[in-house]
Amino acid sequence: MVACAWIFLSLLCAANSAPECKSFEEIYGTGKELCENMWGGAFKYETDEDDAYTMWFFDSANPNDATAQSLGVLSGSHDTCHLQYFHKSAPSPEPDAFTECHPWKDSACCSHSTVETYQNLKEGYGPEYHWDRCGPLSQECERFFVQEACFYECDPNAGLYRKYPTSVYDERCDEYAAGYDAAYAASNNCDHNTWQMHNMPIKKSYCDAWFTACRHDKFCASDSGDYFSCAAEYQALDEAAELNATKSELEQLKAENEALEKAGIAPGLLVAIILPSLVACVAFACSCYLIRREQMGKPFFERLNDDGDRGTPSTVGAGQA
Prior knowledge:
The chain is mainly alpha-helical and 321 residues long. The protein has a domain at 14-162 and 197-231. Helices cover 44% and strands 4% of the residues. It has helices at residues 2-14, 24-27, 31-38, 63-70, 118-123, 139-154, 182-188, 204-214, 222-225, 227-262, 268-295; strands spanning 21-23, 43-46, 200-203, 218-220. The longest helix is centred in the last third of the chain and has 36 residues, at 227-262. The radius of gyration is 24 Å and the shape is globular.
């Protein structure tokens, strides 16, 4: 049993390797590809800057409000934060200590605790979303990731581009909602959420500046540099690392078992003691394997005759964001 479990975990862990890292220049080539590819369609590269938003500003008033009004997606002022994750229900002022995302201090959809430091922003959604998994970024490049995170968390206009706005959102299709109905979601092939953005126009100059700042830095190249595909791979990699620790324990048990057999001591008692834990370890490993396949869009068990697009769950940041 110990030997079988050890072999299974060895094969499972060997199947996981780190995503390839390349320079931004190699992955994206231009600011347009960076803005549109990195966040899974959350943003659109807009050459007409009068019809586009910026992820950072120094004005006393948020210029994105005027843009939203001119585009006809906002009438009056903001009274709600449409995105729902760490977001507040409605924009409101933040305290004087609110400095990391300071442009939004007077009207923010984020709380100070969420964006207190760049470390909070980087680590808020788990290690798979750390933007420096390919190594430390230059300061000028990392600053753009901080700005995008502030924009997503804090700007009330970001919620105007929610992928599933209240007019179409159905909580029966949202696996994290109280009213989720798995049978309904499967039969209607729907996968909704309340935090994902889609097709928000961003100023060409901002996207180009981001690309220039990061062009020689390294980032995950999977799926044309899609942050969410990369996160799924990193999550699988991290799970494999945990399994490797379990494998090391099994190797030790295997060696001890062999030593007992060589010494002529029946290992039955040892097996009786460790068997429940061993079974639990193998079950955990199997679960991780199945979950990893689901996250990579390759479920072990699939419905037959289903030609519909299942969709890929995004996570946060821009889709996050």
